[in-house]
Amino acid sequence: MTPEPASICLGCWQNLHMPIPLRGPLSAPFRLFGIKPSRMNPNTCTICEMAFSKVMKARAVTIDATVMFADLRGYTTLTQTIAQDGLTSLLDAFYDDCAAAIWRYDGLLNKTIGDAVFAIFNFPVKRDDHAARALQAARDIQSSFRDRHDALVRTIGAGDVEIGIGIGIDSGDTNFGEFGQTHRDLTAVGTVVNRAARAQAAAKSGEILVTAAVRDRTRDMITAAGSDFTLKGFDQPVTLFPA
């Protein structure tokens, strides 16, 4: 677990052996050139965001990564019943809990998609135990949201609408890079991403579902038996494990 906040960019130090200051007086000259903490992980910098086009000279690479999707349940229903400031408070709580947990375990908060979050672990900060880190981040997200659930319900006036988070996680080789021509997007694509997204869709409110690949990599962190799920886009049933 990385202390927060890091004083130098973890990605540049690990991959390029460059001590890029993120905070404090030494960071001031770098800010003049637009080098600052990344919005996807404040313990990395904007150099990491430009790595493919400026440093690695590649638009995409294959990496071993763990992908996590987290979705806020009940949000769509609430958009029809509560005021905009209540929706804003709910999304703020959700994004804050997700971001804190993802960054705590050196993940990259790649995207926020409406009421969902997409995170990648093992890039640009490489960790051998990235699957375990993703799982622990997911558990922290669920725990933090449970702790504030009752207060949120009262604050936003959710009434009988159930709010919670469903999470899906998968691990394996993933294509990561800049995709698109007229509009380039730095992200991950491939079967692992799709399977994690479908696992999230299958998860109940308050539940974390992981694939066999994640279960195998995290060992005794997961003890529950798996069940076969029919996931959209997959011809064969996929075994998912509650975690």
SSE blueprint:
Layout: H1 10-16, H2 28-32, H3 46-49, H4 51-55, E1 60-73, H5 75-78, H6 84-104, E2 107-113, E3 116-121, H7 130-156, E4 164-179, E5 185-189, H8 191-202, E6 208-211, H9 212-218, E7 227-229, E8 238-242
Parallel strand pairs: 4-6
Antiparallel strand pairs: 1-3, 1-4, 2-3, 4-5, 6-8, 7-8
Structure characterization notes:
The mean pLDDT is 85. The chain has nine helices and eight strands. Strands 1, 2, 3, 4, 5, 6, 7 and 8 form an eight-stranded mixed β-sheet that branches. The protein has two domains: 10-55, no CATH class; 60-242, Alpha-Beta Plaits, CATH 3.30.70. It has 243 residues and is of the alpha+beta class. The two termini are 20 Å apart. Helix content is 38%, strand content 25%.
Features:
8-stranded mixed β-sheet; Alpha-Beta Plaits; 243 residues; alpha+beta; 2 domains; globular
Low-confidence stretches: none
Percent helix among the residues? Answer: 25-40%
* Number of distinct helices: 9
For this structure, the CATH topology of the largest domain is Alpha-Beta Plaits
The CATH superfamily of the largest domain is known as Nucleotide cyclase, GGDEF domain
Strand content: 15-25%
Backbone CA Rg: 19 Å
- Describe the sheet with the most strands: 8 strands, mixed
CA-based shape: globular
Integer count of domains: 2
The CATH class assignment of the largest domain is: Alpha Beta
Regarding quaternary structure, how should these chains be classified? single chain
The H-and-E topology, N to C, reads as HHHHEHHEEHEEHEHEE
Structural class: alpha+beta
Can I get a quick summary?
This protein is 38% helix and 25% strand. It has helices at 10-16, 28-32, 46-49, 51-55, 75-78, 84-104, 130-156, 191-202, 212-218, and strands spanning 60-73, 107-113, 116-121, 164-179, 185-189, 208-211, 227-229, 238-242.
